[in-house]
């Protein structure tokens, strides 16, 4: 909690939460849910992107925090039940010899992809709050890829950065046209 507090106090509005507890006390889970609800009410621009855990099992939201929290009631939290993103064999970068690194992966690599997409959206349209960004990511997610349906237990959608960015561009407020003529008038 202190780490989140520090990030927020230093101006971060989109937080990548690739951490959690798969065996939390249900009361602690309730405390986290209340924490996120209060932040959503008091700071509507804060958005938390949470990993799913790498055990390959459906996460029980009563004992998994923060990512097991329900999809609907938290407009400021994106979890594994909200949206899927690729995590396995994800490119991490290059080594000193220029070879592509793609060690295993998992949700700790999917979380930054969703976070980056949310950041793109915020940079394109800074007026969007956390709930609006979350909705864009969900609504533009692919429901199937190459004829395969996105898993319902993962929100039934797979991250589609291109579609989300286009939606953010389309939903920008109209910009006032300014005179860009830089020629000097005849004197």
Give the number of DSSP strands. 7
User: What's the CATH H-level homologous superfamily?
Assistant: Peptidase S8/S53 domain
Strand order of the largest sheet: 1-2-3
Mean residue pLDDT? 78
Q: In angstroms, what separates the terminal alpha carbons?
A: 65 Å
The level-1 CATH class? Alpha Beta
Provide the helix percentage.
Answer: 25-40%
Q: State the shape.
A: globular
Low-confidence stretches: 176-187
The whole-angstrom Rg is: 19 Å
What's the total helix number? 5
Task: Please give a handful of descriptors for the protein shown.
Rossmann fold; three-stranded parallel sheet; alpha/beta; two-stranded antiparallel sheet; 187 residues; disordered C terminus
Can you give a write-up of this model?
- With 187 residues, the protein is α/β, with parallel strands linked by helices.
- It has one domain (2-169): Rossmann fold.
- Helices cover 34% and strands 10% of the residues.
- It has five helices and seven strands.
- The chain has helices at 2-9, 26-42, 107-124, 130-140, 161-170, and strands at residues 14-17, 47-50, 77-78, 93-94, 100-101, 144-145, 148-149.
- Strands 1-2-3 form a three-stranded parallel sheet.
- Helix 2 (26-42) links the parallel strand 1 and strand 2.
- Helix 3 (107-124) packs parallel to helix 5 and helix 4 crosses helix 5.
- The termini are far apart.
């Amino acid at each position: 909690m202190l780490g989140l507090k520090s990030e927020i106090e230093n101006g971060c509005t989109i937080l990548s939460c690739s951490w959690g507890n798969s065996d939390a006390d249900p009361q602690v889970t309730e405390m986290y849910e209340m924490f996120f609800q209060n932040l959503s009410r008091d700071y509507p621009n804060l958005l938390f992107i949470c990993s799913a855990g790498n055990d390959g099992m459906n996460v029980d939201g009563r004992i998994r925090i923060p990512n097991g929290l329900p999809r609907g009631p938290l407009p400021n939290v994106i979890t594994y039940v909200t949206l899927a993103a690729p995590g396995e064999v994800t490119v991490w970068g290059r080594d000193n010899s220029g070879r592509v690194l793609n060690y295993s992966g998992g949700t700790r690599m999917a979380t930054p992809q969703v976070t980056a997409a949310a950041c793109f959206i915020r940079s394109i349209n800074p007026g969007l709050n956390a709930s609006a960004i979350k909705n864009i990511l969900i609504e533009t997610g692919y429901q199937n890829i190459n004829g395969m349906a996105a898993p319902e237990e993962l929100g039934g959608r797979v991250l589609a950065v291109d579609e989300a960015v286009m939606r953010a561009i389309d939903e920008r407020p109209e910009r006032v046209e300014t005179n860009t003529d830089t020629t000097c008038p005849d004197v």
